[in-house]
Amino acid sequence: MNDNPARIIPPETLLTGYARGIFPMSESRQDPGYQWFTARRRGIIPLDRFRVSGNVRRMIRQERYRPRINRNFRRVMELCADRESTWISDLLIDSYQVLHEMGFAHSVEMVNRDGSLAGGLYGVSLGAVFFGESMFKKEKEADKVALWHCHKILQKNEFELWDTQYYTEHLAQFGCVEITSEEYREKLERALRKEAVFKE
After folding, report:
1. Range of the domain at 110
2. How high is the mean pLDDT of the chain?
3. pTM, full prediction
4. Residue 94, class by beta-carbon neighbours within 10 Å (0-12 exposed, 13-18 middle, 19+ buried)?
5. Residue 197 falls within a domain, yes or no?
6. Residue 3 belongs to a domain
7. Residue range 22-36: average pLDDT?
8. Looking at residues 96-109, what average pLDDT do you find?
């Protein structure tokens, strides 16, 4: 736990936390501190089990949105935090922006024809692990289309573990499953020994 106000969380502190299977959350957008969390049963999306609905696949074929990677990371985080209740504070946004500039935090962005953001997601990559953090949508199914593009990136670049932190019924529709903390630790340690690059 860390409730002391800070300008940013040091990047090495964040990366060490992820490597240990823990992740930071704040109590609100204005919270100057943060706490570390983990899950007794972990949510992951097996890369060979990912799925989306036929409607989402149709939107992908129609190219309703144009995909971009790492073009507007901070704005994606801000839009993910733009809700009534959020664990994404300004401290976390500033801290993950530094991780992004170092090449460890990434955004997948769905863009409308006018260039505005329709939806997207962000997460952290370390070794061959992608730690999915949050997603948002402003247009129909844009968050789900972003997940589909994220999956393609992870597959193409031979990532081994897609961590969603928690299992939810919402994530289950994409193939998310729940595993024990022991099984998660084994998968995490194995995937951290391999290098993968989050790129198009």
Report:
1. 11-192
2. 95
3. 0.94
4. middle
5. no
6. no
7. 96
8. 98
Selection from 163, 158, 167 nearest residue 184 by Cα: 163
**d(Cα 37, Cα 18) in Å, to the nearest integer?**
10
- C-alpha span between 136 and 160 (Å, rounded): 24
The two three-digit tokens of residue 46, written as one number: 């097996």
Domain annotation covers residue 199 = no
Residue 5's pLDDT band (cuts 50, 70, 90): very low
Decide if 189 contacts 26 (C-beta within 8 A).
no
**Token pair 């290098």: residue:** 195
Give residue 3's pLDDT.
Answer: 47
How many domains, in total, are found in the chain?
1
Tokens of 33: 């501190």
- The CATH number given to whatever domain includes residue 175 is 3.40.630.70
Q: What one-letter code names the amino acid at 55?
A: N
38 CB-side CA count, 13 A: 15
Average pLDDT over residues 70-97: 97
141 vs 56: CA distance, rounded Å: 7
Mean pLDDT of 93-106: 98
Residue 5 lies in a domain: no
